[in-house]
Amino acid sequence: MAYLQLDSVAKQYGGKMVLRDVSLALRAGEFVSLLGPSGCGKTTLLRIVAGFESPDAGTVLLEGKDITALAAAKRQMGMVFQAYSLFPNMTAAENVRFGLRVRRQDGQAQQKRAAELLDLVGLAEHAQKYPHQLSGGQQQRVALARALAIRPALLLLDEPLSALDAKVRVQLRDEIRRIQQETGVTTIFVTHDQEEALSISDRVVVMQQGVLSQVGDPAAIYGEPENIFVARFVGAVAELPGRVVDGGAGVVEVFGTNVRASRARGLAAGTKVHFLLRPESVRLSQPGADGGLTGVVAGRTFFGALTSLRIDLPGRGSLTAAMPSAEANGLALGTSVAVSWDEDAPRVLTEQGG
Amino acid sequence: MSAGREKAVGSKIGLGLIGLYFAVPLLATGAFSFWEGGSHYGPRAYIALVHQKQLWSSLGLSLRLAVETILVGFVILVPATFWMNLRVRGMRPVFDLISVLPFVVPPIALVAGMTALYTGPAWLVGTSNYLVIPYVILALPYTYRALDVGMRALDLRTLTEASQSLGAGWGTLIFRVVVPNLTTALIGAALLTIAIAMGEFTFANILLFNTFAVYINYVGQTSATEAAALTLLSFLITWLAMLGVLLTGRGQVQIGGAR
After folding, report:
1. Is the whole-model pTM more than 0.90?
2. What are the φ/ψ torsions at residue A61 (nearest 5 degrees)?
């Protein structure tokens, strides 16, 4: 039995469908990210789980119990918000104790639990500080400690890192994962940042226009996108138009050149496909006489260890190749290169999206 | 002399003139309050005043009414302004309009309307408690504005949801989260209400209650120097209230949710 089960959940605002027939099951202790662009319904779904919104249709089951109509205050769910949500009139420790005070726990037990949680998030020394005396990252850590203090049935994280600067984001992201693994709390994490979702989740749910586009582990979401939306949204991808030439051998014609792609096997000859290549799959070499795709180095972006090169396929679009910077330095702008890849690397999607 | 310096001197002169405009009548009133006839000056008017029982009873009554007005105003307006800011922001123009009605409707019209409309138990209609009703209405613009500004500075939605997710009900939310974060707004509103209740004359006079303002008027008709002394006393009370508003608003840190 799933720990959290969403069955056919639907929600609309003012006639606009925000969620359509969403069904999803979470296992106990799982870390699941809801990933998607703004307006895809991910936050609405989280708020339905939290009890801040009620679905127009469908049910929410927690450990088999229907909680669809249960008030948010009675759901025992810890939530960390995008905006800083600490109570300004309370110190960090008092914030963490708030949920325990509401539950009328013994004072000493409250103090002990608050100290334990602040220690867990690395803020034991800041227990007596008020929110305005803490940095954004520290405030979100206290919010995390506060959410965990009540031993929540579910931890709900609504883009908790989006207001933080890049370095703190990465630190806190890793810390959230460490704490989640230590506490074993089942977690739903909403984000529009694919890197965040891929790096800390057991499973990622990619959402688009109120539906679940794909659910899978991070490697599958990145490496095996099931449709063109997921391929485009998660990671960089070069998208070339192709047509299957030989479905048995896995040969696809791209810009008039026949190339091999194992994933084209089984498709009928003549099928129009999206031929998708991740930058790290692209190999560049001296142009030879083997008749493969050729292009010209047209741009470069330096990322430190890696450099990304834009390769123009003359008159036929472009693709991106990512490679170690030392290697990329040998390829000046304007250099002609042969473009190749392992035949298992390209993702081949039919135009219907499968 | 440089243009900048000329400008600075000009503004100092301007401020000085405005200061004189306010100070001279007060100083004259102050001097007059010490006049004992002929060329004699002394504290006789003040001594006579403090020995009048009516002064203390009227002052006590006005202060009691001020406290009741503050309490009734907060009980009505804190939840109403909270709910408007949290759930029905579209109603803001209606709230704004209602809050300025006391500026538009003259007190004399209000009191006529009240006497015609209100009936009720003797402890309310038959006593000075009745004045709390118009006083709440008179204080409405100040109380509502102060609370609204305070609540807009808070991220009410996030704070509400954070406390609900931790299991808190509405009572806990309002008393432990919202009200403690509105201290400045509440103190400001309370002090302004005190100033209004201490100075209100029309309602009290027409409804025949002997409040502080009515007593000042009465003394003014019977003893000119005592009236001057009393005027200074009421100024002092109002000023202390205003000073309180300024001091509580000072050094306030932008906190509250996060915007």
Report:
1. no
2. -115, 130
